[in-house]
Amino acid sequence: MTVMEQRGAYRPTPPPAWQHRTDPAPLLPDPEPYRVLGTEAAAKADPGLLRRLYAELVRGRRYNTQATALTKQGRLAVYPSSTGQEACEVAAALALEERDWLFPSYRDTLAVVARGLDPAHALTLLRGDWHTGYDPREHRIAPLSTPLATQLPHAVGLAHAARLKGDGVVALAMVGDGGTSEGDFHEALNFAAVWQAPVVFLVQNNGFAISVPLAKQTAAPSLAHKAVGYGMPGRLVDGNDAAAMHEVLSEAVSRARRGGGPTLVEAVTYRMEAHTNADDATRYRHDAEVDAWRDHDPILLLEREMAERGLLDDDEKRRVGEDAEAMAADLRTRMNQDPVLDPMDLFSHVYAEQTTQLREQAAQLRAELEAASEEAGEEAR
Amino acid sequence: MTVMEQRGAYRPTPPPAWQHRTDPAPLLPDPEPYRVLGTEAAAKADPGLLRRLYAELVRGRRYNTQATALTKQGRLAVYPSSTGQEACEVAAALALEERDWLFPSYRDTLAVVARGLDPAHALTLLRGDWHTGYDPREHRIAPLSTPLATQLPHAVGLAHAARLKGDGVVALAMVGDGGTSEGDFHEALNFAAVWQAPVVFLVQNNGFAISVPLAKQTAAPSLAHKAVGYGMPGRLVDGNDAAAMHEVLSEAVSRARRGGGPTLVEAVTYRMEAHTNADDATRYRHDAEVDAWRDHDPILLLEREMAERGLLDDDEKRRVGEDAEAMAADLRTRMNQDPVLDPMDLFSHVYAEQTTQLREQAAQLRAELEAASEEAGEEAR
Amino acid sequence: MTTVAAKPATKPATMAQALGRALRDSMAEDPSVHVLGEDVGALGGVFRVTDGLTAEFGEDRCTDTPLAEAGILGTAVGMAMYGLRPVVEMQFDAFAYPAFEQLLSHVAKMRNRTRGTMPLPITVRVPYGGGIGGVEHHSDSSEAYYMATPGLHVVTPATVADAYGLLRASIASDDPVVFLEPKRLYWSKADWNPEAPSPVEPIGRAVVRRPGRSATLITYGPSVPVCLEAAEAARAEGWDLEVVDLRSLVPFDDETVAASVRRTGRAVVVHESNGFGGPGGEIAARVTERCFHHLEAPVLRVAGFDIPYPPPMLEKHHLPGVDRILDAVARLQWEAES
Amino acid sequence: MTTVAAKPATKPATMAQALGRALRDSMAEDPSVHVLGEDVGALGGVFRVTDGLTAEFGEDRCTDTPLAEAGILGTAVGMAMYGLRPVVEMQFDAFAYPAFEQLLSHVAKMRNRTRGTMPLPITVRVPYGGGIGGVEHHSDSSEAYYMATPGLHVVTPATVADAYGLLRASIASDDPVVFLEPKRLYWSKADWNPEAPSPVEPIGRAVVRRPGRSATLITYGPSVPVCLEAAEAARAEGWDLEVVDLRSLVPFDDETVAASVRRTGRAVVVHESNGFGGPGGEIAARVTERCFHHLEAPVLRVAGFDIPYPPPMLEKHHLPGVDRILDAVARLQWEAES
Ligand SMILES: Cc1ncc(C[n+]2csc(CCOP(=O)(O)OP(=O)(O)O)c2C)c(N)n1
Ligand SMILES: Cc1ncc(C[n+]2csc(CCOP(=O)(O)OP(=O)(O)O)c2C)c(N)n1
Ligand SMILES: [Mg+2]
Ligand SMILES: [Mg+2]
């Protein structure tokens, strides 16, 4: 019996404004993270894609270990490693076309490299010679974002501009589980859904925000459940399953490209290393928890699948390993050279045109540097 | 077949971290706004409560019209009327016990009055003689919040402190549909759920944020659907049905008091007047839309129900009307008196102790005022 | 109050109208200019500055956003990254605060952090200041925050003609501009020809609004008319005050200001913003650095008190008025006292 | 570098340790003191200032919050409304920006808007400044924003003893205090007895760290040790420099500062924050207002350049160092030039 039929004389109508805007059911994530490797779905996966993913994962892992080593040698100011999260990083890069845009967070150097950026240029920020080591427009990669979640509205605005232009460009923005608590996450997802912007939000839920575990970050059934509150679909994926990640992100990207609007993807993964080289993870988690994830390593999962299907022989493994080593060796060599820096650059990019004040200050620094080098010269004589 | 059984040799486990934290199903709102008046549920409603609600609605409506009239006479700087939303305002106040706290937004003067504050003191902010006209601690009413949604984290913090104290106090915080787009809304709800704070969030979805209609504010199935993303229940209510509002809010309050954590309540209602007396609603909406809501007026709905049940005779109606008139007359008289203001108050409450700088500035103003009154005195002579 | 000479077709226009016209002309000239904010569409903004833009250019060019200031400015950053020129409206000064992280950490820094490859030509319009009887949070003078943030330009008009010219220049700038609109001058009027509007003013040039020889009043935005009034009143006391309208706080026109103070030897900085930590400190300090040996007295400041903005019925006591300015002028040590 | 006299039980302690001890002692003394922030629990904060507090007082007293600065400060407001004394940790200066609306529109105003009935005894700890090789957004000097906001106290220690004393006093204050911790002094050491810590300093008193007669260096926080070093170096040039450590920017100790400058007749303000719109303008202006006829030269400023904070490898060029301070002292018109 509907409310209209319940009463005799007095039958009020529902509030005039009441009408369903969106059916919530299809927006809700499945209860379990989506997986491909080790399931029947894996049979459908393209062998070429799996090989490509494998090579990138191995290269990515090697990149992570090399960069961490560089922090020990004082060659990087800091490095937030994505070891254990390579499937997310690589899939994010590979799901995009060249014309698309990537909005990485500060941990996502690897996604930037997997997208094709010179591995050394991706490290400029963390090395400390400048804030961003590449031209974002040339590579369609936004600067690595340190203030958490602030890059998400940028991705939405860019995707909105692309939609207005009608050029089929999609933006993919990355954020951590901790970052979802920021107001910018909320505002970005809301704008994206209202504007039906072609943007994909990838949350890497790696269990921690520095020392804070997920349970102190949210009480939600999953982070993907946030999507329905904006009117966009939420997908839950095993973030260590490269094939699942690639499939789900590619679907979300083409949905956005087709005009279907934004998607929120939560990748369940784990940060195997400390937060950065400067962090001491023993203060807040047990080795046993880390160990439990070792058997769910993204490279291992893919290797097992490929082995089972005969897609990976020892030759291929060796070749992939050697390529990764070559990349690491080259990176090491280049990062061991001191960058040539011009202090006067401090004043070159603040404004399109230097203000009088900056010209005066630049002159001051120039004079100081000249005096110092004269002094040094005199001392040398 | 579970994923564990799907494959032969290689059977990966799901990601170790994966475990359901909360069952989403009970957190999702019903598809239709909950209603009592005109349905079978109304039979269970307490006649005393309905009478009380009726008297408050009538008084509230009269308060709204009187306050709007005062703006025309220049006695108020501005008034954002809640005409049409009285059921929400009144139910919010009545759902709370005396020890509980109310966190009103700038539109919720009426809830403040229904909670028992002197009708004139509630208007201090809008009259312009000071920012807040009452001692929040004495009345357990936070200042009317102008910056939208900023009061929500305050309510959460206060409720959290109450929970730590274990004194059973609950906070109820009010916000508009537009305010749900702010980052503070998101952060407040997330903190509340993580902390299981005894707080109830009441969103009055009145269709507009000044001129911006709900469809430009959100693409969600409903605002109540946001709750699941925080891990709290979301309830959808007919905001013009005073009995339904009272029931749902009371339930949420006692759930919070029992330690059950926060609830998000969306009340579907409509702003019958312009945004404030300074606004021109004809610029962004048609009279037809407003007219469609006239038959769904909160007083009308309650009156019809009570009439059907024989709970409201002409005597009672008259008496309620007269009480409301008396309140309005008293308010008019008092608001027509010029408040006595002391300009030196400007310096009295900035800090617990006046800084040297403020003492100097206070002395300056005092000297100016004395000079001015001397001048005036001389002129008078 | 305006420098535009009357032409045959001029008629009285308000500052709000001139700002609206500047938006319209910028949008008509350059399809990459987009306006976004709360209520900028059908309503035309709460101050009606964007009136008619959606009707003329459509919702995609002048867009009512969800109610979230960080989101508005943050999406504007993304739009600018894609080559658009967003003009963002913040509804009131205090409602720009939620967007501060986007402004400080991204808008102000993006060009620099990308070595100039990613400029952000964003204009952030902020109605600011008091004197309109607004309830709390509607009358803040927030210019000190913007001035303290390298990478931003900070511009504020005081006349109808400048409102047009400076807003056009701000939108045309390849750098982010915080464009501060003095609320209580929105309805100020001047003769002005919308069909042949005043030429676009370059950003960064102060202007002498009234020449004088006794002392310089250095001011901007809402305090410019007050200073002009004070200068008129000062004639009765025998003072011939010069009034400099800064127009742009960043970049700062040291040359014009210092030249004036060197001429007059005395200066008072006047603004509504709180005195302590407000723009006046910076201005007084840099004038003193540059004109020390020309100064007959310390540069004084007449500013709002160091208090939260008062409620409407008390705001007149807070705002720098003619008398308070004249009191300060009187303290400029007219007889040798050292 | 510390004023505490060596006692038998003293041993070297870092500023971070003294701050941690101040939190601990405040919490032990007053059960209404609660610490909250990102990673303040098991980790002990990224600078380890809150180390051990959760272990000693439990998670309800020292709480790891979700990652949302406006939420942290906003909930702290509610906790303070209920009678608690929250001490909030912002992880880095630039990550306090998302909380600006809460800080400016509520924390700073609540006492005033409620006519004193609802004070907010909140301490907001903000690690600030550079010199630690941090990547972008980790080295901002944001004190100008706080100074420009009436209703806040702004306090910053420069010594181990003051770190303890001023933080205790800030937590005990019934008003909100923005407590700025100079990042690069976290590891600075001094002999200090944690069992009998230095007495609690009152907020609002500057201190002469080094007496001198030639000129006054006015400074605070991270620049205090640099100024002391400069003063040592200046002896070689024949200058005997006085160094005033402000300790509190709000309230400002006009008396101590003006007394020093009246004695020396010359002054330089030194800070890391950008010069333009930075604290130095206010300080120079008010010193000049008060000491004009004692000044032999304009008050000069040595500050960070007007640029976004540089990347680690270039920050040394930005930070005011000994040479730059001595250059400024040399420009204080030692021969009569007027
Ligand atoms: C706005 C902001 N607040 C605080 C920080 C300091 N911080 C850097 S990383 C981090 C934790 C991030 O956690 P999460 O989002 O889960 O990403 P993950 O580190 O796990 O990749 C914090 C708190 C920051 N960078 N930005
Ligand atoms: C942070 C902030 N931004 C903007 C405003 C200006 N403003 C006042 S009311 C309003 C609309 C509010 O809409 P809604 O939340 O739906 O509440 P309603 O007015 O319908 O009660 C706006 C934009 C504000 N007060 N605070
Ligand atoms: Mg994480
Ligand atoms: Mg509304």
UniProtKB/TrEMBL annotation, chains A, B:
<feature type="region of interest" description="Disordered">
    <location>
        <begin position="1"/>
        <end position="26"/>
    </location>
</feature>
<feature type="coiled-coil region">
    <location>
        <begin position="352"/>
        <end position="379"/>
    </location>
</feature>
<dbReference type="InterPro" id="IPR017596">
    <property type="entry name" value="PdhA/BkdA"/>
</dbReference>
<keyword id="KW-0560">Oxidoreductase</keyword>
<feature type="domain" description="Dehydrogenase E1 component">
    <location>
        <begin position="67"/>
        <end position="341"/>
    </location>
</feature>
<dbReference type="Pfam" id="PF00676">
    <property type="entry name" value="E1_dh"/>
</dbReference>
<dbReference type="InterPro" id="IPR050771">
    <property type="entry name" value="Alpha-ketoacid_DH_E1_comp"/>
</dbReference>
<keyword id="KW-0175">Coiled coil</keyword>
<protein>
    <submittedName>
        <fullName>Pyruvate dehydrogenase (Acetyl-transferring) E1 component subunit alpha</fullName>
    </submittedName>
</protein>
<keyword id="KW-0670">Pyruvate</keyword>
<dbReference type="InterPro" id="IPR001017">
    <property type="entry name" value="DH_E1"/>
</dbReference>
<keyword id="KW-0786">Thiamine pyrophosphate</keyword>
<dbReference type="InterPro" id="IPR029061">
    <property type="entry name" value="THDP-binding"/>
</dbReference>
UniProtKB/TrEMBL annotation, chains C, D:
<dbReference type="InterPro" id="IPR029061">
    <property type="entry name" value="THDP-binding"/>
</dbReference>
<dbReference type="GO" id="GO:0009083">
    <property type="term" value="P:branched-chain amino acid catabolic process"/>
</dbReference>
<dbReference type="Pfam" id="PF02779">
    <property type="entry name" value="Transket_pyr"/>
</dbReference>
<dbReference type="GO" id="GO:0003863">
    <property type="term" value="F:branched-chain 2-oxo acid dehydrogenase activity"/>
</dbReference>
<dbReference type="InterPro" id="IPR009014">
    <property type="entry name" value="Transketo_C/PFOR_II"/>
</dbReference>
<keyword id="KW-0560">Oxidoreductase</keyword>
<dbReference type="InterPro" id="IPR005475">
    <property type="entry name" value="Transketolase-like_Pyr-bd"/>
</dbReference>
<feature type="domain" description="Transketolase-like pyrimidine-binding">
    <location>
        <begin position="13"/>
        <end position="188"/>
    </location>
</feature>
<dbReference type="InterPro" id="IPR033248">
    <property type="entry name" value="Transketolase_C"/>
</dbReference>
<dbReference type="GO" id="GO:0007584">
    <property type="term" value="P:response to nutrient"/>
</dbReference>
<dbReference type="Pfam" id="PF02780">
    <property type="entry name" value="Transketolase_C"/>
</dbReference>
<dbReference type="GO" id="GO:0000287">
    <property type="term" value="F:magnesium ion binding"/>
</dbReference>
<protein>
    <recommendedName>
        <fullName>3-methyl-2-oxobutanoate dehydrogenase (2-methylpropanoyl-transferring)</fullName>
        <ecNumber>1.2.4.4</ecNumber>
    </recommendedName>
</protein>
